Amino acid sequence: MPLLSLISLNFFSKIAFNGFTALEQVAVFAGETRDAARSIFLSAWIVAPLIALIYILMTGSILSYTRADQVDLVNPIAQVIAAAFGGGELPRGSVDWGLILGRATILAGTLAFIAQAAVYIAETSRLPMVAAWDRLIPAWFTRLHPRYGTPTRSLIVIVLLGVAFSFLASFGTGASEAFQLLATSSFVCCGVNYLFMFAIPLLVGTRMSLRPDLRPLCLSAPHVSAEHRSRCSR
Amino acid sequence: MERALTQATDLAAAGESSRHPMRKVLGLRDLIPMQILLVFGPSWTGTAAQQGGTQVSFWLIGSVLLFLPVAAVVQYCVQIWPYEGGAYQMEQTRFRPFRRLLERMESWRLGPFDRLQHRCPNSERVQLCARATLGVDRGKPRGPLGTERGAVRHDSACEHPGPAHRTLNRSFWNRRHPLHRRSAHRSAVCSSARKSSSSSSFSAAAVLVAVAVAVTDQPQFFQQNRV
């Protein structure tokens, strides 16, 4: 067990908040999901233990090949691949399986990063469209592709904004600083979002639930008067 | 119970899909890899690895204290609001009264007619409220905003009946505020509401940017302390 100190608390909040958030982002696609409530509910509870397991195994594999104080914070994957599959003298004519596996891993990792970026862009592009439905931004963003039903204009704007922010964050900085700047800014915004999201069930959300049994517990208690029930359920 | 839930969410989703033509093409098989791609960040494994053998405890405590509560909140909110937009829709639906409060701070300065309009943020509803106040639809069956029944969508944004039916003495109001003055006043109020809403959004954005700039020296702190 880790020692309880301010530093360990700081570290814990950093990896917990950065590594374990974003489960709610798939809810952005709720309007495009069949039986959205059930599907998102099931996916969240299936993925939660899977992600924890992936993190533990991956961190363990990094520690198998690299000392804790020599871990590269920016790109630990490349470091562990180089340590695991690189080096070593081989007899002439034998197949270098380490090299092949290393390259395959790098290829798989690249594909995963591309897929991750695609999902992030798809998710983010839905938000201007929904905001335009609510008339917060121009209705220009609501146009869907006639065949695929995707918000093409939102997609274009989000991609251009992403490219612009990447260039802006990289001006006059190294990779590490740019990464930290983008990550910190995005997580501050994400933190504000989480404050509001957790406030929904804690403070105000249940009063308008479609299900009576999701409304505040006091409403289902037998001693609550009919007047109070009707006032709360309004 | 599950059946009731499905029916309730289907009703809500049907209302949503009737308003916006999004195709329902995603299923559970699509959502699971999407969740993994969205949540998993490989760079944080390096940060955790710096802690050595205690990393397992950190990951397990983190999953219990943050991951599972987030999953519970997401499940709870999606059951109630299965709409496109996710957290935006949930927060927008629940905290609209807060936004309305910000707008009303401006409206108290401008008079009771304005308060009526601030209760109906969309231009369509502003128009309907104005028709109700002016008595254009007098004698017709009344909906929640005092207009023709069925003209207004019955959702949470329409939960207020509008003050025209409760608080305002219409004849006194008409004598004191002639129609031409009211129209000019109404457009002034609309632009004022838009400005106050935009200014609050810009203020919030400015605060966020300031906080983001202020905490960018966090990496140096971590590097110095070798966390």
Q: What report would you give on this structure?
A:
- The complex is a heterodimer of chains A (234) and B (227).
- Chain A is mainly α and 234 residues long.
- Chain A has a domain of 68 residues.
- In chain A, 65% of the residues lie in helices and 0% in strands.
- Chain A has 8 helices and no strands.
- About 4% of the residues of chain A have low confidence.
- Chain B is mainly α.
- Chain B has 2 domains: 93 residues, no CATH class; 107 residues, no CATH class.
- In chain B, helix 6 packs antiparallel against helix 7, helix 6 packs across helix 10 and helix 7 packs across helix 10.
- The longest helix of chain B is centred in the last third of the chain and has 36 residues.
- The chains are: A mainly alpha (234), B mainly alpha (227).
- At the A-B interface, helix 1, helix 2, helix 3, helix 4 and helix 6 of A face helix 1, helix 2, helix 3, helix 4 and helix 5 of B.
Low-confidence stretches of chain A: 216-225
How many strands, what sense, and barrel or not for the largest sheet of chain A?
Answer: none
Rg estimate of chain A, integer Å: 24 Å
SS-based class of chain B: mainly alpha
Task: Give the topology, please.
The complex is a heterodimer of chains A (234) and B (227).
Chain A lengths: L5 H14 L16 H30 L10 H10 L11 H37 L18 H19 L4 H30 L12 H4 L5 H8 L1
Helix pairs in contact in A: 3-4, 4-5, 5-6
Chain B lengths: L1 H18 L8 H12 L3 H7 L5 H26 L6 H8 L1 H15 L1 H7 L4 H12 L35 H7 L2 H36 L3 H8 L2
Helix pairs in contact in B: 6-7, 6-10, 7-10
